[in-house]
């Protein structure tokens, strides 16, 4: 009887074991915790409040020397993860500003709509940083010369053949920045610049 | 499976229950199954390494056992040959020497193989990196790529524990285990496989295979010890870790006084993390009536570096002392070297030379054992050098003590010694914290070159990823640790002192520690009200 | 040497005292540490309030803020005598809605006759954000239904234990404890009227940006699966299912999504009302009837919408008019009083200070 009760108890315990991920370390745990494991403490821009108004959210985007995706608007270069204040100062007042509650941050996401494109931002503290640029029409081109209406061949010629593909969407990635082309009937119908925020 | 996880507690509970319903003679087998299961959670492929070590050790030691049995049988036969006493003695000695030589051969083979496994998985990439560096120094453009072998859980610990067993077998200090599964249990016993303590077979075997029935006393004491380990790890070590990690990865911004804070913080975090893990290991073993050796004995009360290493990671220190230092220092080769060097360094120093060389070598190995980086080696060498200097200064200390015979009993003098030792060890441990030897020295230098007092007075500790409440909770935990260490003064187990208190108060104190661990422990999601804001209101 | 009976008793007594003390302290701490949702993220209080109601509503709304901000049960009561409850919560996903429906059917004293499902959440095919899972699931009573809801909604890192014993989720709240944690220790604040959250302020819409096209508009398998489960469950219990799309200007509702809902409704003979196509009929003016520039209606917009919607469902379905029933009347009059009191209080605050400070019913 005692053994039966114990077995029942064991069975109950098995049911309590969480089946989500474990955080096992598979490495030999030396008695001195390895502090210097090569991680850059700037890996998380969301917790690093970027120096209150600095041009970029403190980050270390460049692992290698490849230039990141950015958009030239006239003489001004809109960089991903840039503080939107700098863009607004250079580009002037947008046609409209829309605010939507941020699902992931304390604050609101904003959309700044210009004639030819939109800037979408996420908040960190009192500042907003650009995470998406979306083209509105074919009057603007990417830095590499592609516009809405370009052909898929133009895209591949300009960006190469290392991309991710999903349901008509061609995504080119450089570190945390990306550029996506939505292709329908071999023609570009949408262009979006993206930036991967740390908790995504 | 992390020690400080819900899964581990469930695992323990299941194992205790299974152990309890198993007949006594099979209980050790339950522990073996549990240990292999625990190890398998880290990765099934890692089981290959530990079992390879077990198989090699078993085969070699069984061979030694056969050799000895053969020897004893031959000696028995000699008695019947009617030899003279002198010839009999000679014959016996010859047989013993021959067996010893063969046993030495098998021991050496065994050690080469099992240490070889450790060296291969842990140090191959380190060797390649250094070889590449040498090639670059000679302007050779060829570079070899790293292999990237995943290091099996606890390989340093179980290998050393097994090496100790093999050497003890050779020295005829440990009984040879006939049952390979029992040897497997000794090697893989789950509470100690991750981070020690490193046990000696002659001690551990007394309780490991006895199948002691689960009893109230063992459960209570074991649980208390486990709770204490959880408390130290979760409330103090894991809570303070983000601040330490931040300081370690931002050396350019946080220097001088922040460096001093970092190394003191590291002392606290390392002690609470490591000794907390050992508490959990010892407590878990106690549930099954198995006694593991202590690994820490109030190390921050040490008055000298020698004393420190007899109180900190005690089993590692004694292992290196018994299996490397003593054999090396007392070896014939070392004595010959010492003799030969008299002409160069003088008689007195020549006598101490074996000790110094062995010391440096042992600490080089200790550093290397901790990790395959130059930082760890430097850390080891720093310890060795300081110990060496300390030894050389012994006559000076003796003269001082002669002049002031009662001083060493004065509390203020003891306090100075404790303070000095604490900070000396903190500086040596810097190599653990910062990336690169050069960086570490730069940080040490920053104490004079860039003390950063203004920054500290302006920002304090506010930008180190911890809130004021978290600092306070860790501090509260630390005060309790001090109180408990005070309870444990005179080398008495603090649980025995606790046992002297009346049960309502005793239960209340335990409850306070339990709830402090549950509430203040650094685990789970953390709570930030801003995450829940939907921004509709 | 064995234990005597006396010493055995002492041991059991000590263990009993220890266990009881642990349980009492644990659950006291748990109650203290769980968020009360009295000032921050008060939407977190929505789901749990259902169990304080008579649980005898004829109409149940399911969905996210597009239901709990936009439909007024008081209007449905006053104009049509329809009793309703909104089982909505922030970013409530389709599977959340399904399990909340199961939960309602399990605990309700009287089964509803109609379920109104807002379809906005069909665009999500995966769990999104852990805190929002919490805001929806924490309020559910512990049951197998809740466990199944957890299983469907879990993100990596979430575990059952912290849902069953929320102490383990909110233990770090000790760092931000405030007076409201003590004030609401024994009772929760009331944040809604029959699941509806009242906003009397107005922030007119100024600008709605262009939407960003999607590569694929097809609803995901998981969302579709749970939509079908909701349909099956309503059929099984002989409950009418009505699909709606609330009239909000953002997030953008694509035509391609609308087409899929229309097709689903047609295939299953369901009524589907996309209020975005009925703005004029409802009489909505986004310079007056929204409190956050077109994202949600304010109470005045909600009243208009509910009046219009009540007309549709009254015409198409037989729903009892409970206004003559004394039991219902007394309860709903009390609710109406609370509703009107909060609206006037909020309007007073807007007049005096320019913004609302009172959000709680009590």
The total strand number of chain A stands at: 10
CATH architectural grouping of the domain at 70-195 in chain A: Sandwich
3D shape of chain B: globular
Quickly give the structural class of chain B. Answer: mainly alpha
* Poorly predicted runs of 5 or more residues of chain B: none
Q: Topology of this structure?
A:
The complex is a heterotrimer of chains A (200), B (537) and C (362).
Chain A (H helix, E strand, L loop, with lengths): L1 H15 L53 E4 L2 E4 L4 H8 L4 E6 L6 E6 L3 E8 L2 E9 L16 H8 L4 E3 L2 E6 L2 E8 L2 E9 L5
Antiparallel strand pairs in A: 1-2, 3-4, 4-5, 5-6, 6-10, 7-8, 8-9, 9-10
Chain B lengths: L5 H16 L5 H15 L4 H34 L5 H53 L17 H16 L9 H9 L1 H4 L7 H8 L7 H34 L7 H31 L17 H4 L5 H16 L2 H9 L1 H4 L1 H24 L3 H19 L1 H10 L7 H23 L3 H13 L3 H7 L8 H20 L6 H6 L3 H18 L8 H4 L5
Helix pairs in contact in B: 1-2, 2-6, 3-4, 3-5, 3-6, 4-5, 9-10, 9-21, 9-23, 10-18, 12-15, 13-15, 15-16, 16-18
Chain C lengths: L4 H29 L12 H4 L9 E5 L1 H4 L4 H8 L3 E5 L5 H14 L6 E5 L11 H8 L6 H10 L6 H5 L2 H4 L8 H5 L37 H16 L3 E6 L9 H13 L3 E4 L4 H4 L16 H18 L9 H28 L9
Parallel strand pairs in C: 1-2, 1-3, 3-4, 4-5
Provide a short characterization of the protein structure.
The complex is a heterotrimer of chains A (200), B (537) and C (362). By secondary structure, chain A is α+β, with helices and mostly antiparallel strands.
Descriptive report:
- The complex is a heterotrimer of chains A (200), B (537) and C (362).
- Chain A has a domain at 70-195: protein yfey like fold (Sandwich).
- In chain A, 16% of the residues lie in helices and 32% in strands.
- Chain A has helices at residues 2-16, 84-91, 152-159; strands at 70-73, 76-79, 96-101, 108-113, 117-124, 127-135, 164-166, 169-174, 177-184, 187-195.
- Chain A has an 8-stranded antiparallel sheet, covered by helices on one side.
- Chain B is mainly alpha-helical and 537 residues long.
- Chain B folds into 3 domains: 32-202, no CATH class; 215-292 and 437-537, no CATH class; 302-435, no CATH class.
- Chain B contains 24 helices and no strands.
- Chain B is globular and about 90 Å long.
- Chain C has a single domain, classed as SGNH hydrolase (Rossmann fold, 3-Layer(aba) Sandwich), CATH 3.40.50.
- Chain C has a 5-stranded parallel sheet with strand order 2-1-3-4-5, with helices on both faces.
- In chain C, helix 4 crosses helix 14 (299-316), helix 5 runs antiparallel to helix 7 (144-153) and helix 5 (94-107) packs parallel to helix 11.
- The chains are: A alpha+beta (200), B mainly alpha (537), C alpha/beta (362).
- Chains A and B meet through helix 1 of A and helix 1, helix 9, helix 10, helix 16 and helix 18 of B.
